[in-house]
């Protein structure tokens, strides 16, 4: 097994376990409370409206939107980390069939691993108090890294190796 | 009847009776097929009906706002909460069962690099398959068990089952990662032969089409994040505000606003489903390329099932997207696409069962 494969398989395993731990922590300590808050805000908006209290209703809708913004991203992070981890492990196993030099494959593996970590990390940062533009930039950078690296893998698999001829 | 493309000797070393790899391959394919079948049943019998009921309850809440009946509003939202939980837990059951199946197949590929004793690897494999079955079972039961007999005011016993099964999966994955680390650190040879690659037509098509599908799913996901995600979030807030304004000013536009809200929910759901399914099917195709040598079917039938699987993998996400334009007809075609994938998977599983049966029979004949 070469260095690129080790990076992908070991990095992918760590990322999968990390993504699951994140999901478990979220399911136990955050998710139920967030869903209650989200449903509560929406119900409160309608109750305030029924009572003729439009400003409070509007505030409750804004609160619902803010909680949902957070919820969607937290769930996305969990699923994307695990999904990308599976992809990394799989790429590690098939990397011998990618018709590029060892050095090129090493850098593709680095790009895949870095992108797989940075993309969801940027998404989760969007829910924190840090600057949203920086978080979005990180997410875009991570997604671009993974996509370009995967396109390189697809190209490497499409090219026939001497063993295939 | 065809013969396996690899020798019985190879099978005996790479697919031994009750080995971790065999448990993970059987368990993985069964979990994926089960999860997809559940998803198809959900799409046909629950999804649209649930969406319709949620829309009706939201309209009832808007009308209760119009007449200033806050108690009726609360009752409507209690009903909506139940409907959303029903919908969410069923989607999660489908996603977690197929996800555990993918991970099981991945672990089967990694077994040669896991430096642990065979007995422990086998035990880990059984734990993983059991966790992969109990996690979605627990999630499915959340809606029905609720908080009955629970000491907590937030988490019920079904959630406890799901979370415990999730913890088992994490523990197994950590142990497998530890085995991988031992292998990498020691620099020793693999602990068992890798899965053979025969570079057959089926193998190459599944590998290249799978990679292409994953790439396509990534590009579509990027498009969705860039152009749809934020617009949907802004639109949802705007529709909710207009729904409340219509209800309170008595102009009667709440039915229109509820319909807009339903359309938005459908648009979000189909776009996310298309993105996730095309990537999942790509991963599945790549994973299945590895087990082709173990499928004891004639060459022509192996090819046919590969074509059925890939056709279903394209039909489902494409027609899920087209639901926005073609309505239920496209939904029905998408469900057929999902069924094609399930049938192809079961056919491949049958081929693997035949292969392992002939392998075991030969081994027992030798004594």
Please provide a written account of the structure:
The complex is a heterodimer of chains A (165) and B (367). By secondary structure, chain A is mainly alpha-helical. Chain A has one domain. In chain A, 85% of the residues lie in helices and 0% in strands. Chain A has helices at residues 3-50, 54-94, 102-125, 132-158. The radius of gyration of chain A is 21 Å and the shape is elongated. The relative contact order of chain A is 0.15. The model of chain A has no long low-confidence stretch (mean pLDDT 89). Chain B has 367 residues and is mostly helical. Chain B folds into two domains: 16-195, Up-down Bundle (Four Helix Bundle (Hemerythrin (Met), subunit A)); 198-367. Chain B has helices spanning 8-14, 20-66, 70-110, 118-145, 157-186, 201-227, 229-249, 254-291, 299-326, 328-366. At the A-B interface, helix 1, helix 2 and helix 4 of A face helix 2, helix 3, helix 5, helix 6 and helix 7 of B.
Give a quick precis of the structure.
The complex is a heterodimer of chains A (165) and B (367). Helix content of chain A is 85%, strand content 0%.
Shape of chain A: elongated
β-strand number of chain B: 0
Total beta strands of chain A: 0
What fraction strand of chain A? under 5%
How many structural domains can be distinguished in the coordinates of chain B? 2
On the 0 to 100 scale, the average pLDDT of chain B is 89
- Main sheet properties of chain B: none
- What share of the residues of chain B does DSSP label as strand, in percent? under 5%
Oligomer: heterodimer
């Amino acid at each position: 097994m070469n260095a690129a494969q080790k990076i992908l398989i070991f990095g992918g395993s760590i990322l999968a376990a990390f993504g699951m731990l994140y999901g478990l922590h979220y399911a136990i300590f955050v998710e139920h409370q967030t869903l209650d808050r989200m449903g509560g805000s929406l119900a409160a908006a309608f109750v305030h409206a029924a009572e003729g209290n439009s400003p409070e209703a509007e505030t409750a809708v804004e609160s619902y939107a803010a909680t949902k913004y957070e919820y969607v991203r937290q769930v996305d992070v969990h699923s994307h980390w695990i999904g990308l981890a599976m992809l990394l492990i799989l790429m590690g196993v098939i990397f011998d069939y990618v018709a590029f030099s060892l050095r090129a494959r090493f850098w593709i593996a680095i790009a895949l691993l870095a992108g797989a970590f940075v993309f969801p990390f940027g998404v989760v940062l969007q829910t924190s108090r840090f600057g949203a533009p920086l978080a979005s930039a990180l997410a875009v950078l991570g997604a671009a890294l993974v996509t370009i690296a995967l396109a390189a893998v697809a190209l490497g698999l499409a090219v026939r190796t001497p063993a295939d001829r | 009847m065809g013969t396996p493309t690899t020798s019985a000797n190879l099978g005996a070393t790479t697919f031994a009776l009750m080995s971790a790899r065999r448990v993970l391959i059987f368990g993985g394919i069964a979990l994926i097929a089960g999860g997809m079948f559940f998803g198809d049943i959900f799409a046909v019998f629950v999804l649209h009906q649930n969406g319709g009921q949620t829309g009706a309850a939201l309209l009832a809440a808007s009308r209760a706002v119009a007449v200033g009946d806050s108690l009726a509003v609360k009752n409507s939202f209690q009903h909506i909460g139940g409907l959303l939980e029903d919908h969410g837990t069923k989607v999660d059951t489908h996603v977690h069962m197929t996800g555990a199946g993918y991970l099981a197949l991945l672990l089967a590929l990694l077994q040669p690099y896991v430096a642990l004793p065979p007995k422990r690897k086998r035990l880990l494999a059984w734990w993983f398959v059991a966790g992969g079955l109990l996690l979605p079972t627990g999630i499915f039961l959340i809606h029905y068990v609720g908080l009955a007999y629970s000491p907590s005011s937030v988490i019920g016993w079904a959630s406890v089952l799901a979370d415990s099964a999730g913890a088992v999966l994490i523990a197994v994955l950590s142990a497998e990662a530890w085995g991988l680390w031992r292998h990498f650190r020691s620099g020793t040879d693999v602990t068992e032969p890798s899965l053979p690659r025969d570079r057959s037509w089926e193998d190459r098509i599944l590998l290249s089409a799978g990679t292409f599908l994953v790439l396509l799913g990534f590009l579509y996901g990027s498009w969705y994040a860039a152009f749809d995600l934020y617009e949907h979030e802004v639109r949802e807030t705007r529709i909710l505000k207009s729904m409340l304004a219509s209800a309170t000013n008595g102009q009667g536009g709440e039915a229109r606003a509820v319909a807009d809200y339903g359309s938005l929910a459908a648009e979000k759901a189909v776009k996310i489903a298309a993105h996730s399914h095309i990537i999942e099917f790509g991963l599945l195709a790549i994973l299945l390329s590895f087990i082709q040598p173990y499928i004891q079917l004639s060459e022509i039938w192996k090819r046919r099932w590969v074509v059925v699987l890939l056709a279903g993998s394209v039909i489902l996400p494409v027609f899920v997207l087209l639901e926005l334009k073609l309505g239920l007809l496209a939904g029905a075609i998408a469900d057929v696409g999902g069924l094609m994938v399930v049938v192809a998977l079961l056919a491949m599983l049958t081929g693997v069962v035949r292969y392992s049966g002939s392998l075991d029979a030969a081994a027992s004949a030798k004594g």
